[in-house]
Amino acid sequence: MEGEVQGLVEHAAKPQISGFEDLAYGSLSGMMGKFVEYPFDTVKVRLQTSETHVFSGTLDCLKQTWLHEGFRGFYRGLTSPLLGAMAENAIAFYAYNRIQSAIRAVSREPEDRQLSRLQLFASGALSGAICAFVISPVELVKCKLQVENVQAYGGAPAAGGTKFSGPVSVVVHLLRSQGLPGLYKGILPTVARETLGVGFWFGTYELVCQQLLKWHHPRDAARLSKSDLGPGSIIIAGGCAGIGYNITSYPIDVVKSFIQTDDVRAPAANAQRAGIAHTVRTVYARGGIAAFYRGLGITLVRAFPANAAMFMTYEYLARMSVALRHH
Question: Which of 47, 77, 176, 260 has the lowest tally of Cβ within 10 angstroms?
Answer without folding.
Answer: 176
